[in-house]
Amino acid sequence: MNRRVRLLATLLAAFAALFTVSAATAQAAPDPDIFVFSAPQGPCETAGGNGVTGGVFADYACNPIFIDYGLFVEPTYGSFDDVYIATFADEPTCEAAGDNGVNGGVWADYQCVIGTASGYLLLVSN
């Protein structure tokens, strides 16, 4: 019986160690939870990729909301200047996305610049 108790104790210790490692890994993973704007899935994914490539987002997710996809991000809190995120059809939509990023702490400053024929370009800096 003593042998069974030791075996059970060893198995429980191994399970506890495995659970502890899993929990630590889950807590360290980025959690994209700051909403920036909504768009169709393609433009949402492109904007998320632009943010990651430009060092603005550590991670992003395009989650279905209503009829579009919401861009949810995890900021890098790093330094970047005039990184292009997305193009918007009108200035108020671009300004709303820029404000969401500032209010969420994703970037410190932004500008909505009129593009050649495509709309307003959101450029962000931190």
What is the general shape? globular
* Proportion in helices: 40-55%
Structural class, by secondary structure, is: alpha+beta
Q: What is the ordering of alpha helices and beta strands? A: HEHEEEHEE
Low-confidence stretches: 4-28
Output the radius of gyration. 21 Å
Strand content range: 25-35%
State mean pLDDT (0 to 100 scale): 83
What does it look like?
- By secondary structure, the chain is an alpha+beta fold.
- Helix content is 42%, strand content 33%.
- The chain has three helices and six strands; from the N terminus they run αβαβββαββ.
- A three-stranded antiparallel beta sheet has the order 1-3-2. Strands 4-6-5 form a three-stranded antiparallel beta sheet.
- The protein is globular, with a radius of gyration of 21 Å.
